[in-house]
Design brief:
311 residues, 8-stranded mixed beta sheet, 28% strand
Length: 311
């Protein structure tokens, strides 16, 4: 007699149709909805993992080298040994995209602690694992939100202290962000920004934050992921001759800015036009934000910044 509860079986075919994509797991490729990680993996049980996300636009990876370098560096900082060489890793990412046939994709690489044959408590005994998958391109803000600017809420939830979990190592410690999101929804917002112990703003779930004041751009210097899109935005400012500086931003300064934008692999450079109850500028995406966003997408055609997928 079985004591297993009579759970509704997952409709794998419907899942697959709803979410096309290809995963690489245990040395083989499969539909992303069929890729299953072992329940004992510390990546799942302890958030003991690092990852990175690169996007493909019009059949080309954008700044792949930077994402792979950040991923390898994050793994080394966590004393994880990525069990594939860098060239093989790039080939696997490209193969996930090629097999999915997608011209626009969101491509994730993951290295987890894995587990030891005896499930020992010593992380040094674990056999580290590598996973990757390609999904349809995903946006932090939907089309309407991108057009009119996002409505963000500065949550009272604190970001996990940088001294406890280094935010420059891309990680899955998202309970603070998820609490912040619910806080934002409860207060009529669409997304959230968390504060640090000093009360200054940090970042949001999947994005960095910028202000524009008097034509100059500011983003927090530390306590955040050093986003590749954040770096790209700073480079684009240099190209346009726009002053950019790394400095703390208080919630009051954020609400009083001329323009606010966020940066993410999942959507590039996107305007925020309401912070809490404050309207930013005239309530529409600002001119510098729009200029930077246009330049960002132009760069997707530059061979120096992109890597073609061989479909
Ligand atoms: C916490 C956090 N901050 C910022 C970002 C933006 O980084 P990137 O521009 O490299 O996508 C991300 C990306 O997922 C993130 O998870």
């Amino acid at each position: 007699m079985s004591y297993a509860p009579d759970l509704e079986p997952v409709d794998a075919k419907a899942e697959r149709a709803a979410l096309p994509g290809i995963a690489y797991i245990d040395g083989a490729y499969c539909p992303v909805t069929e890729a299953k990680i072992p329940v004992l993996d510390w990546g799942f049980l302890r958030s003991d993992a690092t990852y990175d996300v690169v996007h493909v636009w019009d059949g080309r990876f954008f700044r792949l080298d930077k994402h792979v370098a950040r991923f390898m560096n994050s793994a080394a900082r966590l004393r994880l040994k990525v069990p594939v060489e860098e060239d093989a890793l790039r080939a696997i990412l490209a193969e996930c995209v090629r097999r999915s046939g997608m011209r626009e994709a969101y491509v994730e690489m993951v290295c987890t602690r894995g587990f030891s044959p005896t499930f020992a408590r010593d992380p040094r005994a674990a056999v580290n694992r590598f996973y990757a998958f390609s999904l349809p391109f995903s946006w932090v803000a939907d089309a309407e939100q991108r057009e009119r600017g996002l409505h963000l809420v500065v949550s009272s939830v604190r970001r996990i202290p940088a001294e406890a979990v280094d935010p420059t190592v891309k990680n899955y410690h998202w309970l603070d962000f998820v609490s912040g999101l619910f806080d934002a929804y409860d207060r009529g917002g669409e997304n959230t920004i968390l504060i640090d112990a000093r009360g200054d703003i940090t970042e949001g779930p999947g994005f960095n934050v910028f202000t524009v004041v008097g034509g100059a751009v500011t983003t927090p210097p530390s306590g955040v992921l050093e986003g590749i899109t954040r770096q790209t935005a700073l480079e684009l400012c240099a190209e346009l001759g726009v002053a950019a500086r790394l400095r703390a931003i208080s919630p009051e300064a954020l609400r009083a800015a001329d323009e606010v934008f966020i940066t993410s692999t999942a959507g590039g450079i996107m305007a925020a036009t309401r912070i809490d109850d404050a309207t930013i500028g005239d309530g529409r995406p600002g001119p510098l934000t729009k200029r930077l966003a246009a330049l960002y997408w132009d760069k997707h055609r530059e061979p120096a910044w992109t890597t073609a997928v061989a479909y």
